[in-house]
TrEMBL record:
Gene3D superfamilies: 3.60.21.10. This is Metallophosphoesterase. It comes from Rhizobium mayense. Residues 28-253 form the Calcineurin-like phosphoesterase domain.
Length: 257
């Protein structure tokens, strides 16, 4: 199935816009983490670096996760569990949704097929939840029964966590979002579809952006800033490099595993 068709099906079930978060002031050290894609090992290592770095800084700290926690890598379930767990004292965390979380929910809600989700890397996610598709196909040769089993097996607390994720975090200085924005629209008028899927219309536009946009979604070899766009998706599931950007007192510092 063409990627655009999966994209249309993935967002079709979300008739109501995803929640938007806003902070009226961003005055604390803020760490932004790119696409994890099931690499629990890298997330754990990067968090240790962040906690060590933050120990030298005053006051509370914020971690912003840019989405795509699941699929492709080997430990999606463990990543979601870690994001649901409390952080050390003094830290807050805001997790945004990515297109892969929306695809998992679209499958769970019957909006896309199992094959559609597998095409996006969903088999690795199911494996992390203890689901072996090939073995189950022998046990449940009828697709409907197979889907019913898998959808029942996926833990409700994880699905509910993913359902509650906002789709962007807006602050006076910076907008945090998974994929980017449509430069032709105001931030208030952005479509969910663009916020988690947009690529070239965001990257190639000469339209001035309203503020710094920190995003992931499209893997790059190293975090790249182009004008007011900062991409911190360094393809962790394949490259072994998960990247974070620290924002503090008008400066941005990038670090990776």
């Amino acid at each position: 199935m063409a990627a655009n068709t999966i994209r249309e099906k993935t967002t079709r079930g979300f008739n109501q816009r995803r929640r938007r978060e806003r902070l009226d002031i961003l005055d604390m050290p803020t760490y932004v983490i790119g696409d994890v894609h099931g690499r629990y090992d890298l997330l754990s290592a990067l968090e240790r670096k962040i906690f060590a770095d933050a120990a030298e800084l005053p006051g509370g700290k914020l971690i912003v996760m840019l989405g795509d926690y699941i699929d492709r890598g080997p430990a999606s379930a463990q990543v979601v569990s870690r994001l649901m767990a409390p952080l050390p004292n003094g830290f807050d965390r805001i997790c945004l949704t990515g297109n892969h979380e929306m695809a998992m929910l679209a499958y769970a809600d019957g909006e896309i097929s199992l094959d559609d989700w597998v095409a996006l890397g969903g088999e690795a996610t199911l494996n992390s939840y203890g689901v072996d598709i090939q073995t189950l196909r022998q046990q449940y040769p009828r697709q409907k029964k197979l889907d019913t089993f898998i959808r029942t097996w996926l833990p409700d607390d994880h699905l509910n966590f993913l359902r509650r994720l906002p789709i962007l975090l807006d602050t006076p200085q910076v907008l945090f979002v998974h994929a980017g924005i449509d430069p032709e629209r105001t931030i208030a008028a952005q479509d969910d579809d663009d916020l988690v899927f947009i690529r070239s219309r965001f990257y190639d536009s000469a339209q001035p952006l309203p503020k710094l946009i920190i995003h992931g979604h499209t893997p790059v070899k190293q975090a790249e800033a182009h004008g007011l766009r900062l991409n911190i998706d360094t393809g962790a599931f394949r490259s072994g490099k998960l990247t974070a950007a620290r924002l503090w007192q008008g400066h941005i510092h990038v670090t990776s595993t």
